[in-house]
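Holo model, cytidine-5'-monophosphate. Inputs:
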Amino acid sequence: MAEFVVAIDGPAASGKGTLARLIAAHYGLRHLDTGLTYRAVAKALLDAGQPLDDEAAAEQAARSLDLSAMDRGVLADHAIGEAASKVAVMPAARRALVDRQREFAAHGTGAVLDGRDIGTVVLPGAPVKLYVTASAKVRAARRYHEILARGGTADEAEILADILKRDERDSTRADSPMKPAEDAHLLDTSEMDIETAFRAARAIIDKTLADRKET
Ligand code: C5P
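Output:
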């Protein structure tokens, strides 16, 4: 693992992705949104007409995935997120993606990875771990307004139902369930705008870096 790694976990629409991007830009670190890796595998299966529970096909797609060619615009689709959380219950697919994610974190001087299991499974030795949450209602409202801002239409109640379903699937799966690492800093952004959340995250990271310099 590179020297300066920030592991960020949390549920869908908690703000972790935006925070991860801001942190990476601020500290000059490379960034990997690991949700995109699960989404890309799900899309590969959908495109090939394969069922989402075909573990061998998912593992194969994960091993041959080109991390640099993942297109956020295409993969951000709501239905692909749903499909990704089905792919994400399969241990062989997870193992293959975790290998790729660790490889990404091993190079260069540092990296930010965000997902569900970064602090617990992918990089348990990361010096800084954040677990970003917000109430399901706030997260659904954020997603809803994001979709409207992009000119789309959506039903907020349906988004909330999907978010609750995805939380349940992600936190109850047997392999690498979503949960905070014991040494993660919890950041509840329910009452925070992104600027406030970013300031709070920077304070945690700067303190960790300063403590490390002292020892
Ligand atoms: O974060 P995002 O919504 O893009 O993730 C899509 C799905 O991928 C999640 O609901 C989860 O099931 C899965 N995932 C995971 N582990 C990660 C990142 C994402 O299981 N580290």
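Residues 7 and 129 are 5 Å apart (CA to CA). The first helix runs from residue 16 to 27.
Archived with the compound record.
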